[in-house]
Design brief:
Elements: E1 8-12, H1 16-27, E2 33-37, H2 69-74, E3 77-80, E4 85-89, E5 94-97, E6 102-104, E7 107-110, E8 114-116, E9 128-129, H3 134-145, E10 149-153, H4 157-168, E11 172-177, H5 184-201, E12 205-208, E13 212-218, E14 221-227, E15 232-234, E16 237-240, E17 244-246, H6 249-253, E18 258-259, E19 262-265, E20 270-272, E21 275-277, E22 282-286, E23 291-293, H7 298-312, E24 324-329, E25 332-338, E26 345-349, E27 357-363, E28 366-373, H8 376-388, H9 394-398, H10 404-409
Helix pairs in contact: 1-7
Bound molecules: flavin-adenine dinucleotide.
The site of flavin-adenine dinucleotide (FAD) has 35 residues, from helix 1, helix 7 and strand 24.
């Protein structure tokens, strides 16, 4: 462990944001000590693969890691894995590890991500899982290998992606969602209806507006469920995918301001003097939208992490990247750019039946976000339209033959 130095940066969380922050510190010429602390026993890896290619055994296990161990050594990044930070003290400027060690920081980057929610009525048994870590995905993969019938509780992104993977692996899939459509919270009712159709057409038994009323167990396993629609189903393996709670405990210790389920940070991702936040926990005041935005997505976490690293290295800047994410389900690549926490109009470009289309989310005529399915180009070309924050010509948006670049430069 490093001795106390004049310039010691501690990064809590060795995931997407923490890893990018550590690398960016060096890329931006920071010469002090960098300590990257992760509770996970593995070095940083690519989480999005865990519900997709890794789960389906389509990538070799080594491919999931972001860097080789030697790369951290070469960059003089001290990587501490398998240890959680259990306490942080603002005045003393220290963090405490789970083995009792106190570590000083001059600057702190908080990037602890989130933890899957668990409902108290769901039994914690050997074939009931949540999915966040590489070990979770490995365990689910193993259980799926010995099973035919999978239950997914929750049809958000993780549930929907695992449902698609399980179907691609030839499993029977029952997906239970309390809301009226899958992905409704993130994408709204209209898109949710389309995704309901997509999953059903690929053989998922999707029950919306439904909950589990009884878990039927045998020894240490769940063997079936009773549902609120009065039916029963036998199951071999279950995944609880009912959302994620941002890890704000350390931020609370430090007296940081909380909001939107995370930590409120300014335009430069700073939460307090010498303390930055990135990734799933950061509720960032976004200069384009002029409001706080918190999203739980991979590229945002990486870019925010890199921006925090650059800021601590001495080049702070307004973080202006538009949120962007993707989700792969079956042969459909969804991409979403922008942030439509609130919209009063949607506009289609292309035919949703064709499974290649885009949907614009608008508020008072201004585009807040664009979702595209198998049409990443529309998403890319719409970035400028989102940034401009002025009402757009709706007819031009719907005209698939028209060029969005002309609209952006009009
Ligand atoms: C299965 C799965 C699939 C996904 N697919 C996509 C996708 O297709 N597209 C997309 O855009 N996003 C996807 N995401 C979301 C994306 O992975 C997250 O938004 C992103 O990883 C968040 O980065 P982060 O650095 O904030 O947190 P994380 O990547 O979760 O990293 C946080 C790290 O901090 C560690 N930690 C937590 N508390 C402590 C502590 N007290 N002390 C030390 N370490 C701590 C954790 O162990 C963890 O390793 C997916 C997520 C999952 C789980």
């Amino acid at each position: 462990m490093s001795a106390r130095l004049n310039s010691q940066v501690v990064i809590v969380g060795a995931g997407a944001a923490g890893d990018a922050a550590a690398m960016a510190l060096r890329q931006n010429g920071f010469d002090g000590s960098v300590l990257l602390i992760g509770a996970d026993r593995h070095r940083p890896y690519e989480r999005p693969l865990l519900s997709k290619q890794y789960l389906r055994d389509e990538v070799p296990p080594d491919r999931v890691f972001l860097h080789r161990t030697e790369e951290y050594e070469q960059q003089r990044i001290e990587l501490v894995t398998g240890h959680a930070v259990v306490e942080a003290r603002a005045r003393a400027r220290t963090v405490r590890l789970d083995d009792g060690r106190d570590i000083h920081f001059d600057s702190l980057i908080l990037a602890p991500g989130g933890t899957p929610r668990w409902s108290p009525e769901v039994p914690r048994l050997s074939n009931v899982f949540s999915l966040r870590t590489l070990d979770d995905s490995t365990a689910i993969k193993r259980a799926l290998g010995e099973s035919q019938r999978m239950l997914l509780l929750g049809a958000g992104f993780i549930g929907a992606e695992v449902a698609a993977s399980a179907r691609l692996m030839g499993k029977n899939v029952l997906m239970i969602e309390l809301g009226s459509v899958p992905l409704g919270r993130a994408l709204g009712q209209e898109m949710g209806e389309i995704y309901a159709r997509i999953h059903r057409s690929r053989g998922v038994d999707l029950r919306t507006g439904t909950s589990v009323t009884r878990w039927i167990t045998s020894e240490d396993r769940v063997v079936g469920v009773e549902l609120s629609d009065g039916t029963q189903a036998e199951i071999d393996v279950a995944l609880v995918a009912i959302g994620v709670g941002a890890e704000v405990g350390l931020a609370r210790d430090l007296g940081l301001e909380l909001g939107l389920g995370g930590v409120l940070v300014d335009e430069t991702l700073r939460a307090a003097p010498g303390i930055y936040c990135a990734g799933d926990i950061a509720a960032h005041f976004h200069p384009v939208f002029r409001r706080h935005v918190r999203v739980e997505h991979w590229q945002v976490a990486q870019k925010q992490g890199a921006a925090c690293g650059a800021a601590v290295a001495g080049t702070p800047s307004r973080y202006e990247e538009l949120p962007w994410f993707w989700s792969d389900q079956y042969d459909l690549n969804l991409q979403y750019v922008g942030n439509a926490h609130d919209f009063d109009q949607t506009v289609w470009r292309g035919d949703p039946e064709s499974e290649r289309f885009a949907l614009f989310y608008l508020k008072e005529g201004v585009i807040e976000a664009v979702l595209s399915v198998n049409d990443g180009r529309t998403g890319r070309l719409s970035r400028e339209l989102i940034r401009r924050r002025i009402p757009v010509n709706i007819d031009a948006l719907t005209d698939v033959a028209g060029d969005l670049r002309e609209l952006a430069s009009a």
